[in-house]
Amino acid sequence: MASANAISTASILPSSSKQLGLKNRRVSQFQKCGQKQAKNRFVVRANAKEIAFDQKSRSAMQAGIDKLADAVGLTLGPRGRNVVLDEFGAPKVVNDGVTIARAIELPNAMENAGASLIREVASKTNDSAGDGTTTASVLAREIIKLGLLSVTSGANPVSLKKGIEKTVQGLVDELENKARPIKGRDDIRAIASISAGNDESIGAMIADAVDKVGPDGIDRGYISPQFVTNPEKLIVEFENARVLVTDQKISAIKDIIPLLEKTTQLRAPLLIIAEDVTGEALATLVVNKLRGILNVAAIKAPGFGERRKALLQDIAILTGAEYQASDLGLLVENTDVDQLGIARKIKISKDSTTIIADAASKDELQARIAQLKKELSETDSVYDSEKLAERIAKLSGGVAVIKVGAATETELEDRKLRIEDAKNATFAAIEEGIVPGGTSSASCFDCQNAGVE
After folding, report:
1. What are the strands of the beta sheet with 341-348, ordered from one edge?
2. Residue 369 belongs to some domain of the structure
3. Of the candidates 39, 113, 273, 353, which lies 20 to 30 Å from 427 by C-alpha distance?
4. Residue 117: count of CB within 10 angstroms of its CB
5. pLDDT digits (tens, 9 = 90+) for 135-158
6. CA gap 197, 252 in Å, rounded
């Protein structure tokens, strides 16, 4: 008997002697169902697969790559053009490479397989950097085009792949050497404006937002990707969540079951910040999260040693939590709901965590900031000065909300995408520095200087 999954994904045709006797007709695969219904036998016919080799397959894939890259490439650079996407409802006018790539499906299966390669490049670039998807797509098209041409000319594909990987590493190292750090508000405004299609107003908004909130978050992401609540962006998003702050390692589920039961009754998400969450405890959290029983996520405590304890105390003060410190005898298994902090909004990626909270005690928060400023004025260590300045910025930083308005839905969507690109490009530049744009940095590389033969 055919499985339920097979039947739901294939066409079901009533069989007859006349149909089975048709000649000169290609039949892909048949699965006979033993079940009889109204004395009729049903046949499941799977979709046919077209197989192609060598030049035919490479040409078809290249054609699909060119079609997608041509559409995405229109938006490249400060003089990039818009693309109109005909979707449900009103047409969407966009200037965002990854949005265009995701919207295109080609009717030819082989061409669509090639297009999916560029689509994947754009998606991965968007996930890791948040911008530069058009540039990545155009570069990928040329690499694939020249690679296929070399293979057609007789080059060894394995050697070609090794050469590309070696070249990429050399160019990345050279780019990192050429990059210079951001120097103030003017650089931020320029980067955001260029990424938003030379929109100076968006650049000014992003610069104001960074000035207000600062560029830093907690340098820890989720322990398990199974905690993700937004699969499209691969992030965890909580609102009005409870926060457990401890320096202890949680491995036995019995230690946190009472707390989990109480937070479940409150119908509030729970963020666990601990030295680590492993073994039985992690497995139980993941299973219950996937089943929809718990709305929970866990991250490792940031920092190391004494700095970790200090950072956890900062988080506890910011959220109004009671820091469950093992050296004070405050164990996780004895923690009550009243000892948890409250966060208005939490956003967790694989690398970082952002917590937005209204401090339970403004006086305590200001006292903490004053204490850190005093320590900053007294220290002679450059490293300690940087870390203390980071902690002060995180505790005193505000929350920037950019409100986007437009006359039409189409204009609103386009403006939102531009602001999102500008924000992502700005934070990437703050983290890794900047180089001349428009791929001009890559075009003038000397391969020998990059260590590539």
Report:
1. 296-300, 270-274, 236-245, 341-348, 353-356
2. no
3. 273
4. 17
5. 889 999 999 999 888 988 888 989
6. 52
